[in-house]
Specification:
The protein has about 240 residues and is an alpha/beta fold. It has 8 helices and 11 strands.
């Protein structure tokens, strides 16, 4: 019997999670650390899907505020997620895992197109599937893409990796008295305008009844602890 509570998961990483302390780009040590944590649970029988943002390379919103078209900026951001997906694929394969990158934008030379049934089959065979290019549409964040893909593959939980221990009632970096929420409802998160995910992502997760766990990726072993059902981060559910 597996030691893990969940069999199929979606791991959502921000692009910034891959830059380490560099402030930009990709940090090899950070990639290796994340890959080793994912490899440990994947070898334990957990089917792992991943969605990675692109903010470590390009942030379309910032340029949009300075006059760039939103659609153009979002498309450029989608391309940044592909770079991150390929980097994570390489790191995971150096851990001995089989992987596939599936892109919502066709890039046949470097990735598969997203096909739901094929993605599920890869997962059943023990391959880690990295979903790139968001939803393939502008105006939708990679958080929304993570919830959409989680719904499509039948994920039992979404793990949202951050650099803090969960969801607080205020910014813990600015307020040392900020209080950590051990649990929240989706409606509560939407009502209080908590910015850990956008409203569309929260609403889609609520509609499909997929719990969301927000946790600190920088604490070694947190992915494993979360999947074993230990108290880690903030659990958002209905």
């Amino acid at each position: 019997m597996s030691e893990y509570k969940y069999k199929i998961i979606m791991l959502k990483l921000s692009g910034e999670a891959l830059q380490g302390n560099q402030g930009f780009g990709l940090d090899p040590d950070t990639l290796e650390d994340i890959a080793s944590q994912v490899a440990e649970v994947a070898r334990g029988g957990v089917q792992v899907g991943m969605v990675i943002g692109g903010g470590n390379i390009f942030r379309g919103q910032a340029l949009s505020e300075r006059g760039m078209g939103r659609v153009t900026g979002d498309h450029m951001g989608m391309l940044a997620t592909v770079i991150n997906a390929l980097a994570m694929q390489d790191a995971l394969e150096r851990q001995g895992l089989e992987t596939r990158v599936q892109s919502a934008i066709s890039m046949y030379q470097i990735s598969e197109p997203f096909i739901r049934r094929r993605a599920i089959r890869h997962l059943e065979k023990g391959r880690v599937v990295i979903f790139a290019s968001g939803t393939g549409n502008p105006y939708f964040t990679t958080d929304t893409a993570a919830v959409l893909r989680a719904s499509e593959i039948g994920a039992e939980i979404i793990l949202k990796a951050t650099n803090v221990d969960g969801i607080y009632d205020s910014d813990p970096h600015k307020n040392p008295e900020a209080r950590l929420h051990p649990t929240l409802t989706y409606m509560g998160a939407i009502r209080d305008r908590l910015e850990v995910m956008d409203t569309t992502a929260f609403s889609l997760a609520m509609e499909n009844r997929i719990p969301l766990l927000v946790f600190n990726l920088s604490r070694e072993g947190n992915i494993k602890r979360a999947l074993k059902g230990e108290t880690v981060g903030t659990l958002v559910s209905d």
